[in-house]
Design brief:
single chain; 90 residues; little secondary structure; 1 helix; 2 strands
Length: 90
């Protein structure tokens, strides 16, 4: 079994829509294009999901040279992935 994370769209795209979803076939087509010149085939798909990944970037990392942003305060993760930089895998 293999798990792939495939970017369907980017927030820099002109027609970017954070609510855009993708069919299983669109995800597979994107995976094939990304992996060229290698080939990939699916016997079956057990599960797939499409969800938006938000990107937030701090304008500055200090405030009056008294506050410093670091670690999870500087970036975000999807709540659906349940992963942060301070969480370890059991």
């Amino acid at each position: 079994m293999v798990r792939l994370y495939i970017q369907i769209a980017s927030s820099t795209d002109k027609d970017w829509n954070p609510r855009k979803t993708a069919t299983e076939e669109e995800v597979q087509a994107s995976a094939k294009k990304i992996l060229e010149p290698y080939n990939i085939k699916w016997e079956r798909v057990e599960w797939y999901s499409a969800y938006p990944i938000g990107q937030g970037i701090a304008d500055k990392y200090t405030l009056d040279h008294r506050v410093f942003l670091g670690g999870d305060a500087c970036h975000t993760h999807s709540v659906r992935t349940h992963i942060t930089t301070s969480k370890t895998q059991d």
